[in-house]
Amino acid sequence: MSHRPDVLAGMIRIKNFHQQFLPNALRALLTEIPTPEQNATKFMAQLIQAFSEHFVRCNPSIGLPPGELFVSLPSGRIIVELLSSLPDAVYIICFSLIMLSLDFSCPQIKNKMSKREFIRNTRRAALQPSCDEFLGSLYDNVYLEGVIAKPSIVVPSRSRRSKSSPTHRFPSPHRPFYVFR
């Protein structure tokens, strides 16, 4: 499906996300559609793009207007990108939810993201300073109802593994890192 984005978009259009809460709809979708071993990053981008567009078609009154997204780079430079449509904002929020989910499910992360941090970090994508309650409810959903995507479990071979080496590790950019259940 990663080579056929039209088929992927068609599969997503079959789903009815009308009046579903965003994290629940995303969780259901990621549970049903497996991630391929190769090109997982490209596939996830295509999947979330198609999902965002279809979710907005099913829920046009989600309450996030188009606007500008300010991105700060480590060099101190600020980039301004125009989010021309509501699907762009939903796309960014979906990845924020996936990252929050990974934060909760990864045992190596000792300091989990707080609700206040999630709202502060995601507020720019939501494009409305008054949407803190909406973003807080997104956080609560992921926290209370379970993670959206989990990192893959990697078991090293016995020759490289010591008693202190972890059986979980952070994913490399060259490996698929989503396990959907």
Automatic annotation (TrEMBL):
GO terms for molecular function: guanyl-nucleotide exchange factor activity. Residues 6-145 form the SEC7 domain. It comes from Dibothriocephalus latus (Fish tapeworm). This is SEC7 domain-containing protein. GO terms for biological process: regulation of ARF protein signal transduction. Gene3D superfamilies: Arf Nucleotide-binding Site Opener,domain 2 (1.10.1000.11). SMART domains: Sec7. PANTHER family: F-BOX ONLY PROTEIN 8 (PTHR10663:SF372), GUANYL-NUCLEOTIDE EXCHANGE FACTOR (PTHR10663). Pfam families: Sec7.
